[in-house]
Specification:
Layout: E1 2-7, H1 12-24, E2 28-31, H2 42-54, E3 60-65, H3 70-75, E4 83-85, H4 89-97, E5 103-107, H5 113-125, H6 133-144
Parallel strand pairs: 1-2, 1-3, 3-5, 4-5
Helix pairs in contact: 4-5
The structure holds D-ribose.
Residues 8, 10, 42, 65-67, 69-70 line the site of D-ribose (RB5).
Length: 145
């Protein structure tokens, strides 16, 4: 499984830690930057992660900024992307099962590494609930917007 990951300066340290953990678990990581803690603008990195997922290069995406909000807004500008800001295992599970979210966004100033790692594990282990007609209908409506 290929995972695209990107961050601005506010999310750089958490991105590096999550990427390292994913590589150790055997995932292929596509690093969309940024590559230092020098100040950058989060839209570029949210879009880079979104495009990597939307064009099929990666199976899922992770985007990190200070709050997990701005970079989610940016990723959601890419057609086909359903980016969700994830705070814990529950939001990770619901975003996947109900919303078929394909980019997980984290706020490095909001949650710590262990919480992010637990949430990411839940994200990777949860599939979209395709048995639910209502979730299928609602996500189809989202994609039609
Ligand atoms: C950068 O200072 C900060 O604004 C950014 O990481 C993010 O929180 C934006 O939503």
């Amino acid at each position: 499984m290929k995972i695209a990951i990107g961050a601005d300066h506010g999310g750089f340290d958490l991105k590096e830690s999550l990427a390292q953990s994913l590589r150790l678990q055997g995932y292929v990581v596509v690093d969309c930057g940024t590559f230092s803690d020098r100040s950058v603008d989060y839209p570029e990195y949210g879009v880079a992660v979104g495009e990597s997922v939307a064009n099929g290069e990666a199976d899922t995406g992770i985007a990190v900024c200070g709050s997990g909000i701005g970079i989610a807004m940016a990723a959601n500008k890419v057609r086909g992307i359903r980016a969700a800001t994830i705070h814990d295992v529950t939001t990770a599970r619901l975003a996947r099962a109900h919303n078929n979210a394909n980019v997980a966004c984290f706020g490095a100033r909001i949650i710590g590494f262990e919480t992010a790692l637990d949430a990411l594990k839940a994200w990777l282990e949860t599939s979209f609930d395709v048995t639910s007609e209502r979730h299928l209908r609602r996500v189809a409506q989202l994609d039609g917007l």
